[in-house]
Amino acid sequence: MKNLINKIGVLTLIFSFILVSCETVDFGDENVNPNSPTSKKTDALLTNAMTWMPNIVSPVTPNYYVQTVSDVTYTSYSRYDTEQWSWNGYYTGPLKDLQEILDLNENYPNEVTGGGSNGNQKAAAHIMMAYYYLNITDRWGYAPYSEALQGSANTAPKFDSVKDIYTSLLANLDAAMGMMDNGGLNGDILFGGNMNGWRVMANTIKMRIALRMADVDSSTAASVFNSAYNGGVISSGGDLHYPYLTSDAFDNPWQDRFQTRYDFVVSKLFIDHLKSTGDPRLPYMADGTKISNGTEYVGLEYGLENPGVLETLLSGIDERIIYDGTQQGGWIATYSEVCFAMAEANQRGWTSVGDTLTWLKLGIQASCERWGVPSASAASFANAATLGSNPMEAIAMAKWTDMFLQGYEAWTEWRRLDYPVLSPPAAAITGTGVPVRNGYGGLVPTQNKASYDAAVAAQGPDNQDTKLWWDTK
Length: 473
Fold this sequence. Notes:
- By secondary structure, this protein is mostly helical.
- It has helices at residues 7-21, 42-50, 54-57, 61-65, 88-92, 94-107, 118-140, 162-179, 195-212, 218-231, 253-257, 268-276, 282-285, 319-322, 335-347, 356-371, 375-383, 391-402, 407-417, 444-447, 449-459, and strands spanning 69-71, 84-85, 143-144, 159-160, 240-241, 264-266, 331-333, 439-440.
- The longest helix is centred in the N-terminal third of the chain and has 23 residues, at 118-140.
């Protein structure tokens, strides 16, 4: 699987979507019902649903939760000024588009073939929905799922439990892979219609779900994990990065954040960790301070209310991310993630493929190379890795380092594995600890009171301190 598709192809697909949305319709034939067109552009719906992914792969906030990024100027964000977060964008945006793809392929199977075969369209839609729903339930816990996306037919859907959502997502992913055929797929900006890429993505999501379940249902988790691995996951060289372009309309959000001001720097915690371990990724993740002409690396203590330090004295995020971002700062899934997952699976006794230390070393080397470290240096650093007295801590720390700027996935792995040990800033605005959940949006308790009350009763208080079903430690 290639990690990026041709940029020209991306532009073609996106411009195609724009042109379709502005298309002039001729209603001159009275026998044609304008409310039921004979050509339904499901390829544009798929493209549009995918272009929402930057909200997950290149956010700011979850990087605060894992304390790898610090605020220089507007410090309230890193001090948890927002406890309630809206999920409306998911449901009115990509999930709505994907549900429409499914509905059109079920109700008008002969009129949507411009988007590819019915099987492939439905498979891609189910896999993308699983990707978005997994992010939703890993942020909020209980959430609308089985009764969601019904429009006016159900404006107050129930909130399903994390466990039930996971169970359904796993079934849908397996079903989706069974729908795939050789009939093509259009509008696909990730894999260019290559269904093997979609199969790999489905199995990667399954692997993630299995690891989430590890401490609450180990036997099921082990079965799901091995099914995913055997079904085909990301291999060496197959890292999947969102296909950002350099044009302002389709560039990496990190680049946009630095166009008018310099708000974010690398945290002292993260810089000190890289320096203390002699990690060769340091100059590829952070810039040297301007005052030292790039020769010194200095992080900012996380969560300060008034840092009182000049930006020139601190290390910013590497310029290849904030002034380009086509190759970094937008990872969807990586081979190093798979390696660390296999290391954990070995440590848990789920698999005998390889061994814990070997997979740990492979993951570190793959991560270093992905960040730009020369192969020889990457191999040398990886070969020095040990499991120490706590193998799970070694795996967790390797993941925390690898997933720099990987936002929500990094936050989930930190909540699951509990390393490094983090404390909230002294000047925290909300909560009693580092956030382990997002609170529901402010209108949810009144707009869907019965479902909200039921979710809170089952899950716990609606705040950022309530742990999710799988977060048991």
